[in-house]
TrEMBL record:
This is SDR family oxidoreductase. Residues 6-144 form the NAD(P)-binding domain. It comes from Salmonella enterica subsp. enterica serovar Haifa. InterPro entries: NAD(P)-bd_dom (IPR016040), NAD(P)-bd_dom_sf (IPR036291), NmrA-type_oxidoreductase (IPR052718). It holds the Pfam family NAD_binding_10. The lineage of its organism: Bacteria, Pseudomonadati, Pseudomonadota, Gammaproteobacteria, Enterobacterales. It comes from the Bacteria.
Length: 281
C-alpha cells in the first residue's frame, strides 16, 4: 500500500493522478484532513483516511498497513517541523518501510528561510532508520502565475528577485517525480528537482508582453517593499513575508539548478514558461 499525505492539496491531487496511471486505486491511501474534500478519491476506489499533521495518534492509525509513504510537506510554514515529526514518528510506529519527502531545492545550502524546516525534517528522516528519498522540489511556476492578473491590470510585474535565474516547473512536473514511491532503487537518493529552463522576472515580463500584446515591465523592489506590496494586495503577513524572502533568495541563486534531474526522472521535458503563461491567458 502507498499512502500520500496532503492528498487533496494542489500537489497531492497531481500526484494521485500520476500514480493512478500505473497503480491500482486499491493500492493507494489518501491521508487527508477533511474527508469530504476527498469524496472524489473515494469514489475512484482510493482508501481515504482522516488524519491531521498535528495528530500523531491519528496518523499512526491512518498509516496501518502502509508500506510506502509520500510525505508532502505541510503548507503551514512555521509549524512544519513539529508536524513532520508527527508523521515520521507515526510511520515508525506503523512500521512503514519507505518514505519519499518533498523537500526544497538545495535545502542544505539554500538562502531561503523556507529551507530551515526542510533541513530539520531531512535530519529527522535520517535519524528515523526508515529508508527514504528526498525530492528537493524547486519553485512552482504557479507561484508567479498568480501575479499575472495584477500585472496585466497595472502593466507592471513586481518582485524582489533582481536578475536571479529561476528554474521553476509546474506542480504537475514535480508530481510526476513522485513515481519514486512505487519504484525500487531510489532509497538513499537526493534529487535536486527544477525546470529545464531558467529565466529572470524581467524575461517573464517580456514573455507576458509577447503573449498578451500589452506592455508589461518588471519592477524590482527590496524584500521589505515587496512584502509590503503583497500585504497591501491582501496577502496574509506570513505568506507575503515568505514570498518576498524567497524572491530575495532567488536573487542569490536559491531557485536555480541546471542538472535537469527532474527531466531525467520523469522522462520528458518540464513545462516551459511560455506554455505555463499561455495556460493562464
Amino acid at each position: 500500500m502507498i499512502a500520500i499525505t496532503g492528498a487533496t492539496g494542489q500537489l497531492g491531487q497531481h500526484v494521485i493522478e500520476n500514480l493512478l496511471k500505473t497503480t491500482p486505486a486499491s493500492h493507494l491511501v489518501a491521508i487527508v484532513r477533511n474527508p469530504k474534500k476527498a469524496a472524489p478519491l473515494s469514489q475512484r476506489g482510493i482508501a481515504v483516511r482522516q488524519a491531521d499533521y498535528a495528530n500523531e495518534a491519528a496518523l499512526t492509525t491512518a498509516l496501518q498497513g502502509v508500506d510506502k509513504l509520500l510525505l508532502i510537506s505541510s503548507s503551514e510554514v512555521g509549524q512544519r517541523t513539529a508536524q513532520h515529526r508527527n508523521v515520521i514518528q507515526a510511520a515508525i510506529a506503523a512500521k512503514v518501510k519507505f518514505i519519499a519527502y518533498t523537500s526544497l531545492l538545495h535545502a542544505d545550502k539554500s538562502p531561503l528561510a523556507l529551507a530551515d524546516e526542510h533541513i530539520e525534517t531531512e535530519k529527522m528522516l535520517a535519524e528515523s532508520g526508515i529508508p527514504h528519498t528526498l525530492l528537493r522540489n524547486g519553485w512552482y511556476t504557479e507561484n508567479y502565475l498568480a501575479s499575472v492578473p495584477a500585472a496585466l491590470k497595472h502593466g507592471v510585474f513586481i518582485g524582489a528577485a533582481g536578475e536571479g535565474k529561476i528554474a521553476s516547473a509546474m506542480r504537475a512536473d514535480y508530481a510526476a517525480a513522485a513515481r519514486v514511491i512505487r519504484e525500487e532503487g531510489h532509497a538513499g537518493n537526493v534529487y535536486e528537482l527544477a525546470g529545464d529552463d531558467a529565466w529572470t522576472l524581467s524575461q517573464l515580463a517580456d514573455e507576458l508582453t509577447h503573449q498578451s500584446g500589452k506592455k508589461i515591465v518588471y519592477q524590482n523592489l527590496s524584500e521589505v517593499d515587496f512584502a509590503a506590496a503583497l500585504k497591501g494586495a491582501g496577502l496574509p503577513d506570513g505568506l507575503a513575508d515568505m514570498l518576498a524572502n524567497s524572491d530575495a533568495g532567488a536573487a542569490k541563486g536559491g531557485l536555480f539548478d541546471d542538472s535537469h534531474t527532474l527531466r531525467k526522472l520523469i522522462g520528458r521535458p518540464t513545462t516551459t514558461l511560455t506554455e505555463s503563461l499561455r495556460s493562464v491567458l
